[in-house]
Amino acid sequence: MIDAKPTDFIQTEIEIAKYAKALAHPARIAILNLLKSRNACICGDIVDELPLAQSTVSQHLKELKSVGLIKGDIEGTKVCYCIDDQKWERVQALWNDFFKQFNSGKMKTDVQLKEIVKQKYSEIALQEKEVNQSSCCGAGGCSTEVYNIMTDDYTDLLGYNPDADLGLGCGLPTQYAKIQKGNTVIDLGSGAGNDCFIAREEVGETGKVIGIDFTTAMVEKARINAKKLGFTNVQFIQGDIEEMPVESNIADVVVSNCVLNLVPNKEGVIKEIYRVLKPGGHFSISDVVLIGELPENLQKDAEMYAGCVAGAIQKEEYLGFISNNGFTNVSVQKEKSIIIPDDILGKYLDNAELEAFKNGNTGIFSVTVYAEKPVIL
After folding, report:
1. Are 243 and 9 within 8 A, CB to CB?
2. End of a domain among 54, 69, 104?
3. What pTM was computed for the model?
4. Scanning 5, 14, 18, 163, which has the fewest C-beta atoms within 10 Å of its C-beta?
C-alpha cells in the first residue's frame, strides 16, 4: 500500500471542527436546548431563563448564528432566534458519518486516499495511453490478458482528440448527456480534456465547457490541449469536486467519467452537482458500482482504490444518494459488466480467494446514470 502524507485537511474534517468549536461551551448548549423547547426566543427570554448576562447571551448567539446553527429574524425592534433545522440535519449527518468511520477505523483512510489518488493521477498524466488502458482506470498493475479493461471507444465521437484521450474512464457519458448548442457543461475529473472537447463539439461556439480536476499535471495537460485546438470557451480549473470552485446554478449539464469512485465522500459530490446545476439541468455520469461485497484485500488496497474498483459502492446505495438529494427522473442509461483479469486480481488475492471471488455472486459494473434537478416554480 502506498503511504501518503496529506497536504491539507479534507472538507468534512474542516466542517465538523467548525461546528464542534461553535458548540464547545455549556452556555451555547443550554441556549440551543432552550430554543429547541420553545421554537423561538428573543435575547431577553434567554437572559430570564439562564444564569447569564445579556451581553454574554448576545455573544453566544452571535457565535451560533455565524456557523448557521441558528437563525435570527427581525420582528419589530427585536431579533427572534430559532434553530435552523436544515443546518442541524447536515450536522447530524456529519457526526453520524464521523462516528461510523471512526468506529470502523476508516477516519485516517479518507485523507490518505485523496492524496494517493492525486499522486497516482499525476503519474497517469505522463503515462502512455496503452499503459492506462490495460490497467484499472490507469492504476494498478497492467494486464497481459486483455488490452482494454474498462474504457469505451471514443474515436467515433465528434470532437474526439487523441492527445486528450489517456485511456481512462469506464463509459461514454457525453454520448448520453443530451447536450445542446449554447449549453454550459461541467466535467468532473476532466483529466487531459477528453470529455470536455467532445462536449465543446456539442455546445458549439455559443456554449461553455468547464473542466474541474484536482491534479495539477492533468490541468496543465488539458490547458495545453485546449490551446492547440484554439478553443476560447473551454476552461480548466484546478479544484476539489467535493467543493467545486464555481457558482451555484451555473451549469445546464454535468458529466463525469469514472471519477466519483475516487472520492471518499461520494454523497458530498452529489450534493455539489445539485448545487451547480441550474433548475431543470441534468447530469450524465459513468461510474463503477458493485452488486455484492468485494474481498477484503481489494477493499483495503489503496492502489486498487486509485484504480476505481476498491472505491466502488453498492449500486443501490449509489442510486440512493442521487434520489435522496433532490434529483428526479433517475435512470441507468447504460450498464455493462467489468471483468478484472486474473493477473491483476492475483496481486491482491491468493488462489483460494481468487477462485471464491470468480465463483461468487459479486458483480462489478460500469453504469451511466442520468438524473435531473427539478425546476423550481
Report:
1. no
2. 104
3. 0.65
4. 5
Question: Nine-digit cell at 184?
Answer: 454550459
**d(C-alpha 371, C-alpha 124), whole Å:** 30
Number of structural domains (the chain) is: 2
* Residue whose C-alpha is closest to residue 13's, from 242, 238, 213: 242
**Of 278, 230, 276, 231, nearest to 256 (Cα)?**
276
**Residue 252 lies inside a defined structural domain of this protein:** yes
CB atoms within 10 A of CB 28: 18
DSSP-derived letter for residue 63 is: H
Beta bridge partners of 208: 184
> Does one domain contain both 60 and 154?
no
CATH number at residue 240: 3.40.50.150
Q: 18-65, pLDDT tens digit by residue?
A: 889 999 999 999 999 999 898 888 999 999 999 999 999 999 999 999
- Distance, CA of 212 to CA of 155 (rounded, Å): 23
Contact 30, 37 (CB under 8 A): no
User: Which tens digit of pLDDT belongs to each residue from 81-122?
Assistant: 999 888 888 888 888 777 766 665 554 466 666 666 767 666
In a domain, 256, yes or no: yes
Is residue 2 situated within a structural domain? no
Is residue 207 within 8 A of residue 234, CB to CB? The reply is: no
